[in-house]
Design brief:
Elements: H1 4-19, H2 34-49, E1 55-58, H3 65-73, E2 78-83, H4 86-90, E3 97-101, E4 114-120, H5 128-141, E5 142-153, H6 162-167, H7 175-179, H8 188-197, E6 200-208, H9 212-230, H10 240-248, H11 253-273, E7 281-288
Parallel strand pairs: 1-2, 1-4, 2-3, 4-5
Antiparallel strand pairs: 5-7, 6-7
Helix pairs in contact: 2-11, 9-10, 9-11
Length: 292
């Protein structure tokens, strides 16, 4: 079990994101840029690899953006979101989404009860010493034919990682990784060993955020911050005000076309390099190992 001190560290790191409103409610079926890639890759796996769409569990899912999206799009009968912090759970507006206040190391669900587990942008916030504990408990609650779908950071060669990979201890998070509270960055080999130790195996994977995704992400962030600054918005540092205003007009044909084309450019990373060139992130579709 995690100690009270460890839980407090995870809770503090997590709560800061929601107190600063870096992560906000997004109940749009449209997904742009990075989210377009998330929706395409994970959505394809849910559609093709998960036969029984009864229970969807978004582990460490915060305000439930992805639980809401995938749960509704693929008609799961039961949608559950957990988080170690009560704050994001309290912001989930839908009554039909079940909220559980718990750590991803100790999920408060019965054995073999979940068809699909989402672990999106969570893995990289877990200390290395706790990764095995987390994966074992997620395996515990997974049904025999269920899947664990992960998106996390990778020890790859993406933009901004080249110099760090050549000259820096990779265990030492620097720059944006440290700012985002990333505390691990594994290689594909290390992921594989971790999953094998915990009774799981990789059914499919894609490298992510190699060239095109990083270009569109960078342009999006720069545009949002510049516009918010010109508007003298209090949220200009992250460009949140501009992103919110664009979301309000995203259904207009011209805006939607521009956002779609930009997002499609992001997806080229998966289409061209997805199996061959390690970038800044990786997607995994995991199943229970038959040998365990």
């Amino acid at each position: 079990m995690t100690t009270i001190k460890e839980d407090q560290v995870y809770t503090k790191l997590n709560q800061e994101f929601y107190e600063k409103e870096i992560l906000g409610i997004d109940r749009s079926m449209n997904k742009w840029f990075a989210r377009f890639v998330y929706a395409k890759v994970i959505g394809n796996w849910i559609e093709k690899n998960i036969k029984n769409k009864h229970t969807l569990y978004d582990a460490g899912g915060g305000i439930g953006n992805w639980a809401w999206y995938f749960g509704n799009k693929y008609k799961f009968k039961r949608i559950i979101v957990s988080d170690i912090s009560k704050l994001p759970l309290s912001k989930i507006p839908e009554d039909y989404i079940e909220k559980i206040n718990c750590s991803v190391m100790e999920n408060k669900l019965p054995d073999s009860s979940v068809d699909c587990i989402l672990l999106i942008d969570v893995f990289e916030h877990i200390f290395i010493k706790d990764l095995e504990k987390m994966m074992k408990d997620l395996r515990r609650i997974l049904k025999p034919d269920g899947k664990i779908l992960i998106l996390t950071s990778l020890y790859g060669w993406g933009q901004g990682l080249v110099l760090q990979r050549l000259f820096t201890n990779r265990r030492l998070m620097k720059g944006e990784f440290k700012a985002l509270s990333h505390v691990n960055r594994l290689s594909l080999k290390e992921f594989n060993l971790l999953f094998k130790r915990t009774g799981l195996e990789i059914e499919d994977y894609y490298y992510y955020c190699i060239i095109f995704q990083q270009i569109t992400d960078d342009l999006k962030e720069r545009f949002a911050k510049i516009v918010s600054k010109l508007r003298k918005s209090k949220e200009r540092k992250e460009g949140q005000e501009t992103k919110k205003s664009i979301r309000k007009i995203e259904e207009k044909p011209l805006i939607k076309t521009l956002l779609y084309l930009s997002s499609l450019i992001s997806y080229l990373d998966i289409l061209i390099f997805g199996k061959f060139f390690p970038g800044r992130g990786i997607f995994f579709c995991l199943k229970k190992s038959e040998l365990h």
